[in-house]
């Protein structure tokens, strides 16, 4: 069980600023399977991962999502360094600033303060022997239910990847069984279709447009809707974009009008 040194007194549901005891995923184990695009983790998993990055049941996680409380903010000319803490540990998250945006354009700077809860998307790197989260998106959390959901999502991800790992092991260790599987079987698959499981066909239309873009800044919202306006109303299109950003499937780049898929990393 993990101790939250920031929590005093009652459980999470008694106070929006505290956590109760939550059973979350075990430390990732090593393996050699393909990389998953994105997954929620707790800070302990980032602190204890190897130099090759975060893994959950042998699956490499390219983009991680962490929900934590801001304990310190250090603003410099080229970057903002946040010290963040959840119930499992504390680490630094670094957000590099866009130098071409100009001194007065702070639209990309997260509006967060010390003691706020935030959700961070980024890559775990090793800097001078310490793990650092190199962030590309930081969002303030305004609903305390999002904190609880994050831990539940961590548990679900760990259990699902454990199940997939065991299925893949059975297939790999039993060629006869593997050959007997129908051609459309999903058992043991880790391809791009399985990794975006959970997207419905209309969400996939939007996601595939974003993923197909080869531009550094991604594809613009206007270009996407021009291609999709005969297939879905604009309100539905906007809701799909917002949902996929929140789930970590996509992220905004040079502004809030351009998007890339997380698997573009």
From TrEMBL:
Q: Where is the OB domain?
A: 64-141
GO CC, sorted alphabetically, is: chromosome, telomeric region; DNA replication factor A complex; site of double-strand break
In terms of Gene3D superfamilies, this protein maps to: Nucleic acid-binding proteins (2.40.50.140), Winged helix-like DNA-binding domain superfamily/Winged helix DNA-binding domain (1.10.10.10)
Q: Could you tell me the superkingdom of the organism this chain comes from? A: Eukaryota
SUPFAM superfamilies from the xrefs? Nucleic acid-binding proteins, Winged helix' DNA-binding domain
Q: Can the keyword NAD be found in this entry's annotation? A: no
InterPro entries in the cross-refs: NA-bd_OB-fold, NA-bd_OB_tRNA, RFA2-like, Rfa2/RPA32, RPA_C, WH-like_DNA-bd_sf, WH_DNA-bd_sf
Record family assignment: Belongs to the replication factor A protein 2 family.
User: What's this protein's name?
Assistant: Replication protein A 32 kDa subunit
């Amino acid at each position: 069980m993990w101790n939250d040194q920031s929590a005093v007194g009652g459980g999470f549901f008694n106070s929006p600023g505290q956590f109760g005891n939550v059973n979350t995923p075990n430390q990732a184990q090593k393996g050699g399977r393909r990389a998953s695009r994105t997954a929620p983790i707790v800070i302990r998993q980032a602190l204890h991962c190897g130099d090759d990055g975060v893994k959950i049941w042998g699956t490499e996680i390219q983009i991680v999502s962490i929900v934590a409380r801001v304990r310190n903010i250090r603003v410099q000319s080229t970057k903002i360094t946040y010290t963040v803490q959840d119930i499992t540990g504390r680490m630094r998250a670094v957000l590099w600033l866009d130098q071409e945006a100009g001194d007065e354009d702070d639209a990309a700077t997260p509006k967060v303060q010390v003691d706020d809860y935030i959700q961070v998307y980024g890559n775990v790197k090793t800097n001078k022997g310490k793990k650092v989260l190199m962030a590309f998106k930081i969002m303030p959390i305004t609903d305390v239910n999002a904190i609880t959901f994050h831990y539940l999502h961590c548990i679900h991800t760990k259990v699902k990847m454990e199940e997939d790992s065991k299925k893949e092991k059975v297939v790999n260790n039993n060629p006869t069984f593997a050959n007997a599987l129908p051609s459309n079987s999903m058992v043991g698959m880790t391809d791009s279709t399985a990794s975006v499981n959970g997207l419905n066909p209309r969400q996939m239309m939007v996601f595939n447009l974003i993923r197909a873009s080869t531009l550094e800044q991604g594809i613009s919202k206007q270009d996407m809707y021009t291609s999709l306006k005969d297939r879905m109303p604009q309100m539905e299109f906007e809701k799909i974009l917002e949902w996929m950003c929140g789930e970590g499937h996509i992220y905004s780049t040079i502004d809030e009008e351009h998007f890339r898929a997380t698997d573009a990393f």
